[in-house]
Design brief:
The chain is 51% helix and 23% strand. With 412 residues, it is of the alpha+beta class. The chain has three domains: 105 residues, PAS domain (Beta-Lactamase, 2-Layer Sandwich); 81 residues, Signal transduction histidine kinase, dimerisation/phosphotransfer (DHp) domain (Helix Hairpins, Orthogonal Bundle), CATH 1.10.287.130; 149 residues, Heat Shock Protein 90 (2-Layer Sandwich), CATH 3.30.565.10.
Length: 412
């Protein structure tokens, strides 16, 4: 009985020990579990925080791309395949972005060769980064838009060879237009400076010539007693005064037109009468032995245009013909109207104009013969006034055979 009680007591103590051990084990497990959960909780909180930052960065990244109107892309260095990841370039009815291999295929030949070479050098590891500006053709049209791209090697294999090239592209039409405007402005400034120098050089010479004659002849007039000789000197003074007046009128006319001060006044009048008046005037100024004729397509031809500008153009064309025609004939005429336009022409048998100078004669201060008096403004004024009427002035000429100037304009 005593042994039984002792055994039972031992069993009870063993059970208590087991329970105590289990309790302590569960307690330690619970403590470890709490610490593990806290650690995992911190890790989870950190990951959530990083995810939030990543989402924020992505939003900011997209915002930057949208603001700068950029596209992002990457190139597989092995296949040379171009894949666009994002594209926030400005899209409109005139802009269809090229993707993939179309990007290079849509470039003009001169750009395609250069850009392809840069891509190859990036993919082969010859260069680390690239920057190019190029044009892209719009599908089914001849129009193009300008693009600018930056690229860099982003990933390499174990051998150090490029695996992936990443880059960005953006449209730069506005910048290119601005650059072209700046170039045009610079060219205009240089042309203006050139014209100013030419103006001073030509005007100083052309004005001085008749002025010298006027001053010289008037200075000797008091000493001349013979009436015929005095009249001859007065005629020379008058002739040089008229030359000086023509030069000044030309300068004033072209200045008014360029400054926009010469208003266009449309009126209806009989063309034949106006042309005949100019013919009668210049017929008296032709050199001895030079004939003058008119050839009008119609007996009467009423038109509506700016009378003053028309007279100015015809006057300069006739003056030019009289100046360079020493023999033969000068003819003033016009063709029958067609499609609401009419063409007046002045034909002469003068010295003619070489082919390389036939367009240059319309430039300011250009003179085929430097020994012939004149400022070189007449034909420039003709073309400027013709353009203001919606017309044109052209020339057909052959050296030694004469010239024909055509003045075409709408007659409403």
């Amino acid at each position: 009985m005593t042994e039984l009680l002792l055994y039972t007591s031992q069993q009870s103590q063993l059970t208590d020990i087991i329970i105590l051990v289990l309790f302590v084990g569960l307690l330690l497990f619970a403590v470890v579990l709490v610490f593990w959960q806290r650690r995992k909780g911190k890790e989870l909180a950190y990951e959530l925080e990083q995810l939030g930052k990543l989402q924020k960065n992505n939003i900011e990244f997209d915002f930057v791309l949208k603001t700068m109107r950029l596209s992002t892309w990457h190139i597989d260095a092995k296949t040379r395949e171009i894949v666009f990841d994002n594209d926030y370039r400005d899209k409109s009815d005139t802009f269809v972005p090229a993707m993939g291999k179309e990007l290079v295929a849509a470039m003009p030949d001169q750009d395609r060769e250069r850009v392809t070479r840069v891509i190859e050098e990036l993919c082969q590891g010859v260069r680390e980064e690239g920057h190019e500006e190029y044009q892209i053709r719009l599908p089914h049209t001849k129009k193009t838009y300008w693009s600018e791209s930056y690229a860099i090697v982003a990933e390499r294999d174990v051998d150090g060879m490029p695996k992936r090239v990443v880059g960005t592209s953006m449209r730069i039409d506005d910048r290119k237009n601005l650059e072209q405007e700046l170039v045009n402005a610079r060219n205009r400034a240089e042309e203006s400076d050139r014209l100013k120098t030419a103006f001073i050089a030509n005007m100083s010479h052309e004005i001085r010539t008749p002025l010298n004659a006027i001053i010289g002849f008037t200075s000797v007039l008091p000493d001349v007693q013979d009436p015929d000789e005095r009249q001859q000197l007065l005629d020379l003074v008058h002739e040089n005064t008229q030359k000086l007046l023509v030069i000044i009128d030309d300068v004033v006319n072209i200045s008014k037109i360029e400054a926009g001060q010469e208003e266009m006044v449309m009126s209806n009048f009989e063309l034949n009468l106006i042309l005949q008046e100019q013919a009668d005037r210049f017929m008296k100024e032709t050199k001895p032995g030079v004939g003058f004729d008119v050839q009008f397509a119609c007996e009467q031809q009423p038109i509506t245009t700016d009378l003053n500008r028309l007279i100015e153009v015809v006057k300069h064309l006739l003056s030019n013909a009289v100046k360079f025609t020493n023999e033969g004939k000068i003819t003033l005429g016009y063709d029958a109207p067609a499609d609401g336009r009419i063409r007046i022409w002045v034909k002469d048998t003068g010295i003619g104009i070489a082919k390389e100078n036939q367009e240059r004669v319309f430039e300011r201060f250009f003179k085929v013969d430097e020994f012939v008096p004149g400022a070189g403004l007449g034909l420039s004024i003709c073309r400027t006034m013709a353009y203001s009427l919606g017309g044109s002035v052209t020339v057909k000429s052959k050296p030694g055979e004469g010239s024909t100037f055509f003045f075409e304009f709408p007659i409403q």
